[in-house]
Design brief:
single chain; alpha+beta; three-stranded antiparallel beta sheet; 1 helix; 3 strands; about 10% helix
Length: about 55
């Protein structure tokens, strides 16, 4: 599963109660499910089930 905290558009804000999503300019949480604008900060690892199918 992809999370907001794994996205390039996720920004930590030390002075805010919640973090921010640059795509929406709205508060978010690192463990929230990612939206359709998700852009990984680094390549996502394949799961073991994906490795078996490859």
């Amino acid at each position: 599963m992809k999370y907001c905290g794994q996205c390039k558009q996720f920004a930590r804000a030390s002075d805010n109660y919640r973090d921010l999503c640059a795509a929406w300019d709205q508060p978010t949480d690192a463990k929230r499910s990612a939206c359709e604008f998700f852009m990984p900060t680094k390549p996502l690892r394949k799961t073991t089930s994906e490795n078996k199918n490859a």
